[in-house]
Amino acid sequence: MALAKKIVITDGVFLTLKEQCPVLEGSMIIEEDRIIYIGENPSPQDLEQADEIISGIGKLFMPGLVNTHGHAAMSLLRGYGDDLALQVWLEQKMWPMEAKFTSQDVYWATLLSIIEMMKSGTTAFVDMYDHMDLVAKAVEESGMRGCLTRGVIGLCPKEVQDQKLAEAARFARDWHGKADGRITTMMAPHAPYTCPPSYIEQFVQAAHDLDLPIHTHMSETLREVEANVKEYGLRPVEHLYKLGVFTRPALIAHGVHLTDEEIRLLSEHDVRVSHNPGSNLKLASGVARVPELIQAGVKVSLGTDGPASNNNLDMFEEMRLAALIHKAVSGDPVAVPATEALRMGTIIGAESIWLENIGKLEQGAKADFIALDIDQPHFLPKTDYVSHVVYSASAKDVTDVWVNGRQLVKSGKCLTLDEEKIKREFELCFERLVQ
Amino acid sequence: MALAKKIVITDGVFLTLKEQCPVLEGSMIIEEDRIIYIGENPSPQDLEQADEIISGIGKLFMPGLVNTHGHAAMSLLRGYGDDLALQVWLEQKMWPMEAKFTSQDVYWATLLSIIEMMKSGTTAFVDMYDHMDLVAKAVEESGMRGCLTRGVIGLCPKEVQDQKLAEAARFARDWHGKADGRITTMMAPHAPYTCPPSYIEQFVQAAHDLDLPIHTHMSETLREVEANVKEYGLRPVEHLYKLGVFTRPALIAHGVHLTDEEIRLLSEHDVRVSHNPGSNLKLASGVARVPELIQAGVKVSLGTDGPASNNNLDMFEEMRLAALIHKAVSGDPVAVPATEALRMGTIIGAESIWLENIGKLEQGAKADFIALDIDQPHFLPKTDYVSHVVYSASAKDVTDVWVNGRQLVKSGKCLTLDEEKIKREFELCFERLVQ
């Protein structure tokens, strides 16, 4: 799949995500992995020099979506035990099945999720799981960006803990910056309730040694918060703070149950929160205090969580949920307006995983962007495309996807992966697991 | 478009919605407007007698979705004033624009919404609006079912009130049972806060005279409830009860702010509630007490509300929201399980608008059903199709739609309406309105 040297898109509508000019009608030019021009339709001369000219008529172009928390391989468990409480679901349904996963299961299940994500406009995603070399291989092959981390549960003997930590560090070191820079890594103790304090401290030390951020689940359920207080005399935020987690740049998944004081503490450190509204609702975990977090200056991005607790990987749904639920819960109809939800799903997502110059359409930005078919009833009338994308669009409106200047999806078809083969292999994995 | 006399679908997966056998693999036979067989794949003889044989491989067949509250023509106001409070949005944005709507605007805007609804698997919908003859004409042409009602705002001089009531009654009488029975009607005073008490009583009398149900908005916002108490000394439920509204079969839209006592009163009368979660969230109206309503035996169905407050007409989203938000708000992860949400969107929806023998796939039921393309990553693995439909599917997974035995959508294309022409006319209407 050769890179097109110079791609010109003409006659399109562009959601730039820039404050001065959020919506622009005209043209965009991509050279190698960068946007080199965005503005009025170009001169005939520019068109002559193009390797590829794409008509943007009937299309909306916008930055790719960034999914900042998930476990892609859990697609193998989609629909396997719904309508249960988080702990029951984890302990009785998910973990016993996951214990049986082989590297090959993780590879094919991750590829299946990558296809779903790519085709629905996600261009970068965070993954916390096991068998991560195979996850990295899948990301490398797909052309997507991945911020990957071996998520470690430390409820095991010391020698197993040591082996897991070494493996997590080895993975993080081996893959950080690989695949033309599309893969980055983090260190991830799974959660305060699954890792003893001293083990979390070892992860903090490793993150310092490797100069990498930390990713962990935190304050997802009230039960977790109460258990943490019972066991350690501290709520999870202060617990992690005392263990040094916030001495590193950190990305926290969930953060549903936070006090004012905890929000202040997060805002005073380099801690970003991945808000997972679909998963939090489905598992009855609660509704995160997103307006307060944003108000305090915390970067809040969006994640789907794993496909077993969502149950799809449609980031348009997460943007819409983020824009909807906080209005009803707060009673404030301007809580998380459409523009904010769109930023959470794109540019703030990119910033939250330390991707620079990604998540906006402007000269010099990386060419990670998507096209939507807006020649459809639910995109009419042409009143407000930010509103339409957040309140009306969905995964399957996406027709084309580019990452790092390379087209990965064209007219709804994956260019980089063999979808039929992946679905077949995935089904074989599932059949073997349930036997 | 001739009716196929006998259609046989082979090798499909069927969500029957029957308790004993919710999912069935095999075949379904349709003759005229009815399902005459569902079960194992048929004999070669049955296939010989078929006018049309459809391969169901890779498809999931299920009852069509029933949208029990909306204002289809408000598609003209999609994205026109989002992120505002209900009263501000109504009084400053919606009503001034709606005052300019002509019959032709309503006709084309309703057709645009009908296309969106049909293509996303909705086979029957409730519409409360003005210029209803044109709405009925649009429904008649489309092949869908519509339960239609002239929604009347009574904040006007008595002679205008009289004229509107007469018009509403004339419409209801003229169209009830028309279009091969696909169109039914109701009497609809818009809301307790937009109709004086004596005017509501006149609607009750007219509903008795015509032997029709009543449809109205009720207890949508806290502000409405408080204003009702201030003006009439009663909350909306008791107010409408005293005006005789519940002496008729009634369909109430929203019912967000209800006390235990009010829920009991509704359950003791023939009152059904149309739950509109997307709209209630977006307008910050609150979260209806759906688990308590269901517990009390009230029929709770689902509606999108108008496209200006949703902003799409995707009933899969409403089913998902119904299954998700009540879990988080109640803290109960089994609140509104997937099966219940699916029933709310299909069979309970049909029952809520007095459609008999619709909303399930079984011998003798009316042939209102849809097909979804399940050969996609988000429908894998094949664990639980009820879960997949509620937690993972979306509008654009729908490929084919039948109503009353007639195919309206085939491979994603409308067979009965000219989509390109309707989009063009719709855009002309909008341009004229904003001039």
Automatic annotation (TrEMBL), chains A, B:
Keyword Ribosomal protein (UniProt): no
Example GO molecular function: 5'-methylthioadenosine deaminase activity
Note describing how the cofactor binds: Binds 1 zinc ion per subunit.
Enzyme class at the top of the EC tree: hydrolase
Binding-site list for Zn(2+): 69, 71, 217, 305
Reactions it catalyzes: S-methyl-5'-thioadenosine + H2O + H(+) = S-methyl-5'-thioinosine + NH4(+); S-adenosyl-L-homocysteine + H2O + H(+) = S-inosyl-L-homocysteine + NH4(+)
Keyword Hydrolase: yes
Family: Belongs to the metallo-dependent hydrolases superfamily. MTA/SAH deaminase family.
UniProt name for this protein: 5-methylthioadenosine/S-adenosylhomocysteine deaminase
Species this chain originates from: Paenibacillus larvae subsp. larvae DSM 25430
Lineage, uppermost ranks: Bacteria, Bacillati, Bacillota, Bacilli, Bacillales
